[in-house]
Amino acid sequence: MTIPSSVTTNATPGAALSGPPSVRRGDRRGAPRLSPRISFLIRRVGRLAVSLALVIVGTFLIIHLVPGDPVRGALGPSASPELVARTRTELGLDLPVIEQFFNYIAGLLRGDFGVSLQTHRPVADTLVNRIPATVTLAVAAFIVAALTALPIGIATAISARSGRRRLLNLAASALLGLLIVVPNFLVAVALISVFSISLGILPAAGWGSLENSILPVIALAVGPMAYLARIVHVEMDRVLDATYMTTARSKRLPGRLIYLRHALPNILTATLTIGGLLLTGLVAATVLIETIFAIPGLGTTIVSAITTKDYPAIQGVVLVYAVMVLGVNLLIDLILVTVDPRSSILEG
After folding, report:
1. pLDDT (tens digit per residue) in 283-324
2. What is the pTM of this model?
3. DSSP code of 348?
4. What are phi and psi of 70, to 5 degrees?
5. Rounded Cα gap, residues 301 and 127, in angstroms
6. Which long-range contacts (CB under 8 A, 24 or more apart) does 329-337 make?
7. pLDDT over 60 at 8, yes or no
8. Do the beta carbons of residue 272 and residue 335 sit within 8 Å?
9. What CATH class has 128-347?
10. Domain spans of the chain?
């Protein structure tokens, strides 16, 4: 039997099994891939959502495992058993824990954080009134720390390499190391003792004016400033040894141009990374500083809520702190990707 020439013409082994060329090309290409930045953003937002879910569940479980009656703590020991029982029913605290949890999640989806057991006001209203003070304190401390650390770190690195003022460099390094390990509450107490009690030139408590903010901002910024200055010093040492810096110096460029145009941009990546971590730490550290200086922020709110076992207030403040910390981490990652498109965090 003769095989038609149309079947055999240009036939290659395995062609009948491999399918049409267009199908094979489509199979190799597959679905269109997202850009690295979009993929990075999706991954980071997904991690943020998972982290928030874990914070919500963990906070709820920990609070409800702590012994004690929050209603009795809020109403006081003189409250009648009938009032305690009625209040517990009104707040839904007499329901099974799992039902309380789902009611809490449903409230969060509606923007309802519950009602404070201590103030009998919506927790959301308290959070809205207290968030600005905490954010202002943390951001102001970060700005002060960053603007102080950069020139100190750069100046000490340049001075150390030149071999001049060695004694001054050793003293600066020792002072920075000391400021890193000193707790911020000791710094706060020292500032109050000197500037409020001894000199009487700055208030020791309060918020809302420039004078009230000076001491708490400095107390919160000192430790991060010292740590960031050490990082800038180390990074500046590394950059000054680079080949392109040797080339720039061989061209006899002005020192200001060498350090600002060639050195500074190359230390920003590490500085921003550490700075982002320090900013998240500053957000958490506001709790102690707000308590010492009587600042009406989230810190004083959560301390008061823990003391009275105010479940809704504790959960609301912890959730806001988590959102702030995770949001700062996401923002720093986005800045790093923008500054350095080749950054390895795009792959993480």
Report:
1. 888 999 999 999 999 999 998 888 878 888 888 999 999 998
2. 0.76
3. -
4. -65, -30
5. 9
6. 329/276, 329/280, 330/44, 330/45, 330/48, 331/276, 332/272, 332/273, 332/275, 332/276, 332/279, 333/40, 333/44, 333/276, 334/41, 335/272, 335/276, 336/269, 336/272, 336/273, 337/37, 337/40
7. no
8. yes
9. mainly alpha
10. 36-109, 128-347
